[in-house]
Design goal:
The structure holds two protein chains of two kinds. Chain A contains five helices and 38 strands. Chain A is mostly beta strands. Chain A has two domains: about 90 residues, Immunoglobulins (Immunoglobulin-like, Sandwich), CATH 2.60.40.10; about 600 residues, TonB-dependent receptor, beta-barrel domain (Maltoporin, Chain A), CATH 2.40.170.20. In chain A, the strands form six sheets. Chain A has a 22-stranded antiparallel beta barrel. In chain A, strands 8-11-12-9-10 form a five-stranded mixed β-sheet, with no helix packed on it. In chain A, strands 3-2-5-6 form a four-stranded antiparallel β-sheet, with no helix packed on it. The longest helix of chain A is centred in the N-terminal third of the chain and has 10 residues. Chain A is globular. By secondary structure, chain B is mainly alpha-helical. Classes of the chains: A mainly beta, B mainly alpha.
Chain lengths: ~700, ~210
């Protein structure tokens, strides 16, 4: 038995006597020491952590060939083959930052991103809804960012000298035809979609990806939420309506539905209105949101909403002050968006989407009747292939079929457009500090019978941990507005070329960004569709010879650190733009642009009373308006615009249900803002275009039933 | 001698296995003893590295993954560089998922998942409570369902409520029953072996003392 025992001992590893000492130093690419890295021999316990000066040392009893691994959070793992034979080993190892982690360059020329996913973002989704003076409207919040114009009498985003038609809203990769509720001339309406539907927002003021088209100036790219967080019922109460919602969450799927009834009549009775409403806007809307997650991490999303509403009012007739025109509008909208995103295999991801929208407005102006129906059906496919180290290729195509039907009394006109597009794009990380995106988009319009090819490039270069320069160049095309296409044929794609250069610092709770840009417009549609309100102007023939330019500087500063519980941001835009388009007889500074716009948004949280207090101040120089008596076209300017809004949100518990009570007032000091003037046909009478009320206040309550704390 | 050969081999195997097990036990115990005396960020990273090395060498043991994640959650609170906090927690999620696949339906693993979500929320509570608050609560609930005697999920649930403002049903008074229930369970709790998690008792006692004052 003795022999056996000895043999057993010999077989056990305890006996091996040779020891090897391994030491060295771990640094980053700039030779700065990295403490805390894990250095070890593969498949053994033997190893250590690097100390404050990056050095390490350990001994092992292993012998022969071995693999030394160095791993550290935020850096790429390094493996070295070594031979263990009792001789001391000394190694100096440089670690390279992992591009997926902290401190990588981000391609960001021209865009503001709000997201929970990406860590280096400028705004969070909640920032959008808690900004004073925006009534929780996504578009209202974006108007506090540089690059946007304050155009109080029209809906839509006016970006860097572009008209509202040049900004497109994209939900889950697909263009939305009617992102705003139907509006009345000179009375803007708000966005149709609640900010809470989205988990991420990219607001691009230029130079955006080849995946998106049909927008000369700007793209608002919205990503919808994934699975609902929890099963929850909530109700909302406001003087302008009430509603309820319910979300049901299962393990891998969720279903949410929402209904809201609105009637602005009691609200308008309380607050003096400048508009002579007969039937204040009222409506009913509902939506259903379904999510299914698959075992291969694929996600199916289905969103559908329906909305009906009506309103009527009396409008002043400038040519005859003793009569008023009666205007009535009934509208309906249906929207469906269904998409699937999933992984095909390791490196391949696919997106398949389809959407359909139907929008109808029936308008009555005195004895005239007009009707407008728009339908958009589209399908999109995008395939992404990961290459290496965060670089990837994206390509795909989309098809959009738009059908318009317009009627005016007995007359009717319709259009049927089919737009097909294909695109390919590569996002490449050359190093951790230098990245680029190069893409090309090709489109063909059936109606124009023309094609375009648009190259786009965006580069980002990092100069410090938090600082980077960005540059973007690209061509952008869009089909002229339907109003032109209804009139005649022979139009070309409208075209814009963007050049953008920016510097940005995104660091510890502070963001600074300055961006300069130059845009050149060509082939803009020209011609007189409507004489209103430019009665005295010569009627312009239809052509695609409109042109223009736009240049400026956007500055943004946000700070969440300096003051406790306080978050503020400041935006300033300088804009110089001129264009000749639509019915403009000559090149001019357009009515929807102004040289200087300034906003400051502050939010302060008061823990003692669990209240968030928000103040937003906006200033903009006056915009040009048309005065038929002035020989210089658009030679008159309205006075400067000022607005100071306040909001309070009080978070509390009522009957054991988490409740938010909010109160906001727009234009607290009562600035007498004038957007411009409308003239009578003979030019002798004018009427100011004003906000619908001098001030407006809103109070509301939001209750999560049976849930006592916010999570 | 012929007869003995199989015996020698099998004996040798047994001894080797025991030696490996001892090595694992000893290494784990050594590192667990150090856990209570960790102070600065580097000592935490060092501890996490030690557990991770054991995890990677052992491959099929969930506890070293568990402890590596546990230490990284604490590191995410200690590191003052805000941008780094999420990166630690990304690592936590990666390690804890491996632990979960090695030992499914383990109450302690769900407790840790909840801790990780709580840590994510504390980085940016205003924007994250909705998502991570829910995630933390459902993980703690799952941990309690899996092991009704585990005192840790209740303690952490109590911590979440303690730091929730009173107006939302939080605060010390609302949290107290959770700590009291947790301490009761601690009194009866016996870890299955030396390596199983047993932390938390002192923390609950501290909290109860703080509320009592």
């Amino acid at each position: 038995m003795k022999i056996i025992f000895i043999l057993v001992l010999l077989a056990s590893p305890v006996i091996s006597l040779s020891q090897t000492n391994i030491s060295g130093k771990i640094t980053d690419q700039n030779s700065a020491p990295l403490p805390g890295a894990n250095i070890y021999l593969k498949d053994t316990y033997d190893g250590t952590s690097s100390s404050a000066d990056g050095s390490f040392s350990f001994t092992t009893q292993e012998t022969g060939d071995a693999v030394l691994i160095v791993s550290f959070i935020g850096y790429k793992q390094v493996e070295r083959k070594i031979k263990l034979n009792g001789e001391k080993i000394y190694l100096e190892i440089k670690l390279e930052e992992d591009s997926k982690e902290l401190g990588t360059v981000v391609i960001s020329a021209g865009s503001f991103e709000a997201s929970d996913e990406n860590k280096a973002v400028i705004l969070r989704p909640l920032d959008i809804v808690t900004t004073a003076g925006t009534s929780a409207d996504i578009y209202g919040a974006l108007e506090t960012l540089p690059g946007t114009q304050q155009v109080g009498e029209a809906d839509g985003l006016f970006v860097r000298g572009g008209s509202a038609y040049e900004t497109k809203t994209i939900i889950d990769e697909m263009v939305v035809q009617n992102p705003f509720y139907s509006s009345v001339p000179d009375i803007p309406s708000r966005g149709r979609f609640s900010a809470f539907l989205f988990k991420g927002t990219i607001f691009s003021t230029g130079g955006y990806s080849a995946q998106y088209g049909q927008a000369l100036s700007s793209a608002l790219i919205l990503k919808t939420q994934d699975l609902a967080d929890e099963t929850l019922t909530s109700i909302s109460l406001m003087p302008l309506g009430f509603g309820g919602s319910h979300s049901q969450r299962w393990e891998n799927s969720s279903l949410s539905s929402e209904i809201f009834f609105s009637n602005l009549d009691p609200f308008f009775k309380l607050q003096k209105q400048r508009v002579d409403w007969k039937i204040a806007p009222r409506g009913l809307e509902g939506s259903v949101n379904f999510r299914q997650k698959f075992s291969n991490s694929g996600m199916l999303k289905l969103f559908s909403s329906v909305n009906v509403g009506d309103l009527s009012l009396y409008m002043n007739n400038l040519d005859n002050p003793s009569v008023k025109d009666f205007y009535a509008q009934k509208s309906g909208n249906y929207y469906l968006n269904a998409n699937y995103r999933g992984i095909i295999n390791n490196d391949w991801t696919v997106f398949l989407g389809t959407s359909y929208s139907y929008d109808k407005d029936k308008i009555k102006i005195d004895s005239n009747r007009a009707g407008e129906t728009e339908q958009l059906s589209q399908a999109k496919i995008t395939i992404t292939k990961d290459i290496i180290d965060g670089s990837y290729l994206t390509f795909g195509g989309e098809i959009q079929n738009t059908v318009y039907d317009n009627t005016f009394n007995e007359l009717s006109k319709n259009l049927n457009e089919v737009l097909t597009a294909g695109y390919a794009e590569a996002d490449i990380f050359f190093t951790n500090d230098f990245a680029g995106r190069a893409g090309v988009r090709a489109e063909y319009s059936k109606l124009l019978n023309k094609a375009n090819i648009a190259p786009r490039i965006s580069l980002a270069y990092r100069v410090g941990d938090y600082d980077q320069f960005n540059f973007a160049f690209g061509n952008f095309y869009q089909t002229p507005d339907k109003d032109f296409l209804m009139q005649t044929t022979g139009f070309a794609f409208e075209k814009a070329t963007h050049y953008i250069l920016n510097f940005q610092h995104i660091g510890n709770e502070r963001t600074f960004r300055v961006e300069v840009y130059y845009k050149k417009y060509s082939d803009l549609a020209k011609g007189t569709v409507y004489t209103y309100p430019y009665f005295e102007l010569p009627v312009m023939p239809f052509s695609s010879q409109g042109k223009g330019y736009s240049k400026g500087i956007d500055v943004f500063w946000r700070d969440r650190m300096t003051f406790t519980y306080t978050d503020y941001w400041i935006s300033y835009s300088y804009l110089d733009t001129k264009r000749e388009f639509s019915n403009y007889p000559t090149i001019a500074f357009p009515t929807f642009a102004t040289p200087h716009t300034f906003s400051i948004v502050t939010k302060h949280w008061i823990p003692a009373i669990t209240t968030s207090l928000g103040v937003t101040y906006t200033f903009a120089t006056g915009r040009p308006y048309f005065n038929p008596n002035n020989p210089e076209f658009l030679g008159d300017k309205a006075k400067n615009y000022n607005n100071l809004s306040l909001s309070f949100s009080y978070l509390t518990n009522i009957f054991n249900s988490f409740t938010i009570i909010f109160f906001s007032v727009d234009n607290v000091p009562g600035f007498r803002n004038v957007f411009g003037y409308r003239y009578s046909t003979n030019g002798r009478y004018k009427e100011p275009v004003l906000p619908t009320a001098l001030r407006s206040a809103i109070i509301g309550m939001f209750i999560n039933i049976g849930q006592s704390n916010p999570y | 001698m012929k007869l003995f050969l199989p015996l020698i081999i099998s004996l040798a195997l047994i001894v080797n296995i025991n030696a490996d097990d001892d090595k694992y036990m000893n290494a784990m115990k050594k590192n667990l003893e150090k856990l209570d005396s960790l102070s600065d960020l580097n000592s935490f990273l060092d501890a996490a590295n030690n557990f991770e090395r054991i995890a990677l060498a052992e491959k099929d043991k969930w506890l070293p993954y568990y402890y590596a994640s546990y230490v990284y959650v604490i590191a995410s609170y200690i590191d003052t560089v805000k941008e780094k906090k999420d990166i630690y927690l990304d690592k936590v999620d990666q390690l804890i998922n491996i632990a979960d696949s090695l030992e499914p339906n383990q109450s302690e693993i769900y407790t840790l998942k909840g801790m990780s979500a709580q840590a994510r929320m504390s980085i940016d509570p205003m924007n994250r409570w909705q998502k991570y608050g829910n995630e933390a609560n459902s993980s703690f609930q799952m941990a309690m369902d899996l092991d009704t005697l585990n005192p840790r999920p209740e303690y952490l649930l109590g911590m979440g409520i303690y730091y929730t403002p009173q107006q939302f049903g939080g605060g010390p008074a609302a949290a107290k029953p959770y700590f009291e229930s947790s301490i009761k369970k601690f009194n009866e709790f016996k870890p299955a072996d030396d390596l199983m998690p047993h932390w938390g008792r002192n923390q609950v006692e501290d909290m109860l003392k703080r509320i009592g004052e």
